[in-house]
Amino acid sequence: MMNELQQYKIxxxxxxxxxxxxxxxxTIGFFxxxxxxxxxxxxxxxxxxxxxxxxxxxxxxxx
Length: 63
Prior knowledge:
transmembrane helix, mainly alpha, transmembrane, DUF2273, 0% strand
């Protein structure tokens, strides 16, 4: 069982993402879903930037 999960890990992940997107499109609409995706991407990019520059680590080490 674990071998099958490991073999099909990427298709399962993208299938789950597709399912979540389909549910969002149906329940809240296209443009609200796009806004959620945009804000999630911006949040991810900001978090990645803060992690790479070490700003967060410096802030918490000063206190």
